[in-house]
């Protein structure tokens, strides 16, 4: 994804775009009213792709990728690197952009009833380190290329099917 700094011929200090987190009530209202810009990252780890079960909405209880909202003032790739570290303690490298998608969830993390609407940049990356999930993720699965069968694929959400279809060929052969 190309990212452009606008309205100046000089170098823009992205730190000026950083902001404190919104108060929860304000963020909930924004979540209810706005499309969120997110990144999802499929991580190659221990010879397969790391998938997790989300323990919060949206996509609660579903086998999913790591990721979440892009942090304001950070380039999307750097935000993805930070998000993976926060969610599972892994350091990612060789990050490749796979495309974009839009997701519409009936559920939301606040119970406001308007669901969750996101535009997502999709990444594939290699990871190293010791896997340690945060309290919003559980049941890690390392999906090996040979285990990505039609039956496994069909049990996934179509978003994850398409995402994995583009990432599985990138796995290094053992």
Topology (SSEs and partners):
Blueprint: H1 24-33, E1 36-45, E2 48-54, E3 63-64, E4 66-69, H2 76-88, E5 91-105, E6 116-128, E7 137-143, H3 150-154, H4 158-167
Parallel strand pairs: 1-6
Antiparallel strand pairs: 1-2, 1-4, 2-3, 2-7, 5-6
Attribute tags:
Nucleoside Triphosphate Pyrophosphohydrolase; globular; 7-stranded mixed β-sheet; alpha+beta; 7 strands
DSSP strand count: 7
Classified by CATH, the class is: Alpha Beta
CATH architecture: Alpha-Beta Complex
User: How many structural domains in the coordinates?
Assistant: 1
Give the helix proportion (percent range): 10-25%
Distance between the termini: 30 Å
Report the radius of gyration as a whole number of Å.
Answer: 17 Å
Whole-number average pLDDT? 93
Low-confidence stretches: none
Notes on the protein architecture:
The protein is an alpha+beta fold and 174 residues long. It has one domain (24-170): Nucleoside Triphosphate Pyrophosphohydrolase (Alpha-Beta Complex). The protein is 22% helix and 33% strand. The protein has 4 helices and 7 strands; from the N terminus they run H-E-E-E-E-H-E-E-E-H-H. Strands 1, 2, 3, 4, 5, 6 and 7 form a 7-stranded mixed sheet that branches. The chain is globular, with a radius of gyration of 17 Å.
Briefly summarize what is shown.
This protein has four helices and seven strands. With about 170 residues, it is α+β, with helices and mostly antiparallel strands.
């Amino acid at each position: 994804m190309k990212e452009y700094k606008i309205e100046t011929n000089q170098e823009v200090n992205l730190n000026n775009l950083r902001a404190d987190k919104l108060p929860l009530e304000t963020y909930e209202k924004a979540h209810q009213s706005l499309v969120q810009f997110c990144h999802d990252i499929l991580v190659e780890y221990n010879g397969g792709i790391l998938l997790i079960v989300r323990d919060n909405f949206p996509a609660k209880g579903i086998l999913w990728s790591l990721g979440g909202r892009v942090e304001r003032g950070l380039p999307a790739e750097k935000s993805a690197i930070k998000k993976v570290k926060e969610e599972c303690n892994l350091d990612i490298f060789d990050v490749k952009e796979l495309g974009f998608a839009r997701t519409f969830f009936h559920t939301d993390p606040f119970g406001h009833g308007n669901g969750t609407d996101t535009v997502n940049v999709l990444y594939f990356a290699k990871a190293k380190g010791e896997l340690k999930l945060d309290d919003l993720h559980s049941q890690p699965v390392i999906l090996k290329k040979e285990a990505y069968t039609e039956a496994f694929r069909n049990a996934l959400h179509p978003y994850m099917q398409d995402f994995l279809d583009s990432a599985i060929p990138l796995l290094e052969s053992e």
